[in-house]
Amino acid sequence: MQELDRNIQPHTYPIDKIDFIQAKKKVLANGIPLYYLNAGDQDVIKIDFIFEAGTKYQNYPLIATTTNSLLSEGTKSYTSAQIAEKLDFYGAFLQKSTDRDSASVTIYSLSKHFCNVSEILEEIIKYPTFPQKELDNYLLKQKQRFIVDSSKVKTMAQRKFTNVTFGEKHPYGSTAKLEDFENVKQKQLLGFFNRLYSVNNLKIVLSGKIDNNIISIIENKFSDNWNNSIKVEIDTEISNNIADKVILVEKKDAVQSAIRIGKLLFNKLHPDYFGMTVLNTVFGGYFGSRLMTNIREDKGYTYGIGSGIVSLKDAGFFTIVSEVGSDVCRNALDEIYIELEKIKVEIIEEDELNTVKNYMLGEIIRTFDGPFAMSDSFIALLEYDLSYDYITKYIETIKNIKAEELNKLANKYFNKADFLEVVAGKY
Q1: Is the full-model pTM beyond 0.70?
Q2: What local confidence, expressed as pLDDT, does residue 1 receive?
């Protein structure tokens, strides 16, 4: 047997292209689009129900998240305990999530049990009742969690950053307050559900080892007009003039201070988005980034620091995030701005850029590793009505973008005067 010489680095090969299985589309009788991605060898499937029912659509704080969270806590035919017991019996796993733009219900099921699981799923999607007892228990738990989180500097900084960036009255900028928990009523949840959890506001994505029987079950359960309310449109125009761009949310006993620096930017539909993701990765988007190298590895001010571009359906923003010792907070801020200026002045060296490109291409491969990862990547495209060509163009940009192009982007978007700086704690 030939022994490996561990002193010799193994060969690496450039990523030419990524072959991915594309989702197919079928429209149910009531107009709901069903996308299905047949892949994988295991007899397990994942089904995502995606409603445009995120927090930006709520008329009152906490309603969107509470509605989605309580879908499985009691229905027309089942109690919360019965639903949990039946899902457990069939080896199914249920997830629910709500963000600014959408709300989703996801279930993992063995293919052989999906017929039985689908009966429970149909009840959850169509006929939730939001029992008062379950609502009271949920609000009590969430209120206690809210109180604990509100004392953390990272929460204080994030809330203030969001409020100021978008404006407190904007659908993306509003955040809940403690007194809002007392104002959540069962009728509000029912109203929100009836308005937004409808056949006109839903996409279904199915992935895993799929056969015609699985698709037939979905058609049988969800092709009727169980709720065909009209799709809701809202105003998301941002008209926010930030008077004070340096804000301290003081917490006198803070040992650590939370930093949020950023600005309104754009979402993934903008022509500069691909290039900015490469620039951001160099700057603060992975463990070997410049922010990590300087502020963690060299200065030792933090355990972690990073930057990112957050893409929303109707907006986007760039943000730098960290928690540092309060005694070195001012120094950390200075170093962040030094790195911002440096990436504008100096051209990124070839070795550093190639390392970032290889990392980013590897991350793309990871997002298509397995049927459920493929499904999640497809859902990210579906949210913006994008085709798979978007991924191909993204890969080509990563492979071919030059350091000079990144320098132009840095000078276009990384101007200190444009940034909002929020610190929660002290410095």
Answers
A1: yes
A2: 52
